[in-house]
Amino acid sequence: MKGSNVKKLLSSHDQLSADEYLSLRGEKYNLCNIIASRLSLNSSHVVLDIGCGPGQNSNRFREITSAEVIGVDLDIKRVRHAKGLWKNISFMHADVAALPVEANSINAVTSMISFHRFINKQQALKEMGRVLKPNGKIAIATTTAEKLKRRVDFQMFPSALSFECNRFGSAEEIVKLLKISGYKNICIEDFSDYICNVDEGFMSWVKSKPFSIFRHISEKEFEMGLNKLQELILLTGSSLPHYDDYTLIFGEYDNG
């Protein structure tokens, strides 16, 4: 992949439009449920959802907990889109490293597959800590290089897999950043969500290029990957399951 394309991708929020993101990636229904449970969220809480995109997960947190949810994203187009979709949630256009939020005002902060995009991760974590109430909680849902290597879709496209593995890194790196940024009681939990079988429907989904990196690899590699995927479907008789595998990292901010 050419360096200019990588730079372009890294400097943008995502090459998918808000509508494409919602239709191709959608709400992380089960993931939101387990995070809300682990954080013990309820109607008395204020939750800050960082990197909320078009707001589908922010809305899910609101639905299942009745908490006050504030979505934050650096992409103004996605923030505008979210405001048009979800009327019971506040959305703001802001940088995670400089949140326009009062100190000690938030019960919990969530980052739903967005932490890898933060340019200065340690500064972002300190800023999240600033807005959290004493012993306020954080939940980071991410994936890792190890988990990405197990994904059938990314296995078909070596340069895309390599790029994403470099972006996401390891859970241990995030834990280290949390510790030096003032967080305590840190724990890691793996979560695997069955999505579908690897069949013709899955093939159609991959063809739609649901990840922005798929739109930056060469057409030759993409076609070769689709051919390999078709062979796999024929070989397994559409019986191979596909999962979204996540690493969940929880902690509390030690601001006391």
Give the number of DSSP strands: 7
Return the CATH class: Alpha Beta
| Overall tally of structural domains | 1
Q: Which strand order spans the largest sheet, edge to edge or round the barrel? A: 3-2-1-4-5-7-6
Write down the secondary-structure element order.
HHHEHEHEEHEHHHHEHHE
Which residues form runs of ≥5 with pLDDT under 50? Answer: 1-14
* Secondary structure: helix percent: 40-55%
Radius of gyration: 18 Å
Q: State the separation between the terminal residues, measured CA to CA.
A: 47 Å
CATH topology: Rossmann fold
Shape: globular
- Sheet with most strands: 7 strands, mixed
Mean pLDDT score, rounded? 91
Q: Looking at this structure, what is the CATH superfamily?
A: Vaccinia Virus protein VP39
Share in β-strands: 15-25%
Number of helices: 12
CATH architecture call = 3-Layer(aba) Sandwich
What is the SS-derived class?
alpha/beta
Quickly list its features:
256 residues, alpha/beta, Rossmann fold, seven-stranded mixed β-sheet, 12 helices, 24% strand, globular, disordered N terminus
Describe, in short, the structure shown.
By secondary structure, this protein is α/β, with parallel strands linked by helices.
Describe this structure in words.
- The protein is built from twelve helices and seven strands.
- The longest helix is centred in the C-terminal third of the chain and has 18 residues, at 219-236.
- The protein is an alpha/beta fold and 256 residues long.
- Helix 3 crosses helix 4 and helix 11 packs antiparallel against helix 12 (219-236).
- It has a single domain (3-253), classed as Rossmann fold (3-Layer(aba) Sandwich), CATH 3.40.50.
- The chain has a seven-stranded mixed sheet with strand order 3-2-1-4-5-7-6, sandwiched between helices.
